[in-house]
Amino acid sequence: MVFLTRRERFNAAHRLYNKEWSDEKNKEVFGKCSNANYHGHNFELFVTVKGLPDPDTGFIVNAHSLSVLLQSEIIDKLDHSNLNLDVDFLKDVLPSSENIVIAIWGVLEKLITDCELHCIKLVETENIFVEYYGPQ
Ligand code: NI
After folding, report:
1. What is 2-132's CATH topology?
2. Nearest 10 degrees: CA dihedral of 66, 69, 71, 76?
3. Which of 59, 87, 105, 112 is 20 to 30 A distant from 93 in Cα terms?
4. Please, what sign has the CA dihedral across residues 71, 111, 60, 4?
5. What is the spatial distance between Cα 102 and Cα 136, in angstroms, rounded to a whole number?
6. Is the pLDDT of residue 7 over 90?
7. SS3 state at 30
8. Is 41 annotated as catalytic?
9. What's the CA dihedral at 38, 40, 41, 45 to 10 degrees?
């Protein structure tokens, strides 16, 4: 099995806030991340697919096609957005990095057909990233 990873970047704002809770409880749990006026990150997204090289091309996936797909279905929607308000596939989702990778998996697993989706990794800051390997 060969693994191929494509990196994309996007900038976006979000706020960690559970609308079922009081402002005090949100502040207690999420701290500054619950600030009413949002805050931003320069996110890095790593999408890893796996498969065996096609005998004719030597590729497990056409990397250009994968890039075009990620751009149109994911990055164009996330970049310079408010993740709480603007993104169709994050509607009604509390946009933590954990929930974002699960939502991205849900979009991509239907669209990636030549090979298999292996991992979605999202780097939120230089010290924190999350990885999702699909529903277990
Ligand atoms: Ni944040």
Report:
1. Tetrahydropterin Synthase; Chain A (3.30.479)
2. -160
3. 112
4. positive
5. 12
6. yes
7. helix
8. no
9. 70
